[in-house]
Amino acid sequence: MATIKDVAEKAGLSVTTVSRFLNNHPYISDDKKEKILAAMKALDYEPSTVAQQMRGVKTYRIGVLISRITNPFFASLVDALEVTARKNGYSVLIVQNHDSAGEEKNCLDLLKKKIIDGLILCAVESNKNVLEKYQQYGPILLCNTSLEATSLPVVKVDDRRATYNAVTYLISKGYKNIAYSTGRHLRAERPRQPQKPGLYRRHAGRKAGYQSRADFPPDAYL
């Protein structure tokens, strides 16, 4: 197995120069970069990922946390994220939390250990204080989920408006018997769950859509 010393000898450069190149040092000439890359290719050399992580070198890897990959919504979302990441020179590491805060912490620890450069949370089980603490180790983004009064950046759709538009569209087309299917977390007898606000926003949008039409019978939906 080739070593960094072998690469340096093949490129005709010092070990220090090759090491600086591998650590993304800005002051390496293009000529030296080409020599090092050619030597690495000829020797089939791959730098140690563990060593780079210990030195804080970027991994160009983004973690994506979802609840379950079997959910068609998350499958489509992950596909779009992976395509975009690849176009920008990043790979994606998919982690499922299976609605478990413990599994979620394991994913957060990947950021702390520098195994990933950043983390996109598409499902959240931990409270905001836990998540915000991990921002010191790298960027964290909430995607299609949210927490109340958090400093974490959020990218999501307007659940209430989207559901309202869907319901009113169906009503405008003359449909009367409309079924609404949601996750197992939404129960009429349960109080609002702060970790699943999207379900309740969609539920509110659905009700508003029905109520927008005075001629729509209140018992005509499931």
UniProtKB/TrEMBL annotation:
The gene is ccpB. Keywords: DNA-binding, Transcription, Transcription regulation. This is Catabolite control protein B. It comes from the Bacteria. Residues 2-56 form the HTH lacI-type domain. PROSITE patterns: HTH_CROC1, HTH_LACI_2. Residues 184-222 are annotated as: Disordered. Residues 3-50 form the HTH cro/C1-type domain. SUPFAM superfamilies: lambda repressor-like DNA-binding domains, Periplasmic binding protein-like I. One of its GO terms (molecular function) is DNA-binding transcription factor activity.
